[in-house]
Specification:
Keywords: RNA-binding. GO terms for molecular function: RNA binding. This is RNA-binding protein PNO1. The chain is of the alpha+beta class. The chain has a domain of 56 residues. Helices cover 22% and strands 18% of the residues. The protein has three helices and three strands, in the order αβααββ. Strands 1-3-2 form a three-stranded antiparallel β-sheet. The longest helix has 10 residues. The radius of gyration is 28 Å and the shape is elongated. It starts with 28 loop residues before the first helix and ends in a 9-residue tail after the last strand.
């Protein structure tokens, strides 16, 4: 077995500049969800049902007024239902 004592050396090549990064405008609220209404149902466990009913107005008011999300409590299925509106500012959060 003949071992080679030569070492391969990389040849330095010319650095190629990267292309310019594109800049995009921030998306508007209606563009994020393609204008579709998003709907979620959040189940409420039995041990949290009474405290939720007592604090409902404290929860409902900021969610409806500031986040602009329609919210309701479905008493039959014991779920809180959330739905975005056309003027919901940020649907990603």
């Amino acid at each position: 077995m003949a071992e080679s004592t030569q070492m391969k050396v990389e040849i330095a090549t010319e650095a190629v500049p990267l292309p310019v990064k594109p800049t995009f405008k921030p998306l508007k609220a209606h563009e994020m969800s393609d204008g579709k209404v998003q709907f979620r149902k959040v189940p409420v466990p039995p041990n949290r049902y009474s405290p939720l009913k007592k604090a409902w107005l404290d929860i409902y008011t900021p969610v409806y007024d500031q986040m602009k999300i329609d919210i309701r409590m479905n008493l039959k299925s014991r779920k809180v239902e959330l739905k975005t509106r056309a003027d919901t500012p940020d649907v990603s959060n």
